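Moderator note: this is an archived Q&A kept for reference. The question asked for a predicted structure of one protein chain; the sequence and the answer are reproduced below.
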Amino acid sequence: MYGSMDGFSLKPHVHLIWHIGHVEDIMVFQACELKLKTGFFKTELYNLSIYDDKIVLTPKENTVLQEIVITNENLNSISLVNKSTDFFEIEIYTQQGMFIGNISASFNSKKLLRILVEKFDRKILI
């Protein structure tokens, strides 16, 4: 639940998320677009954001889909694979399953990798 503070409406995409009057999470990586595989030859556009202890995948276009929150405790590993000059693949393995998606090669993958290593060091595979 997101509220307002001093007349400002706070949304999940801002750097601080307020929850009942206190700071709940601090976003360390603003969203990048991810084409998440959701079925056989089917993808959905999501935003990938990284907080201090979790990864959040937020549906970008399909409002019926739920936000996916992957906590550090549930995270087994993350793999980054350079598939082509057009995109690289990210594989997120959790205790409940896996999430696979593509991120455009034009995106700054070094920044993403640096932050993933900083936050989830022993769980990163390159």
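Archived answer notes: Residues 34 and 103 are 5 Å apart (CA to CA).
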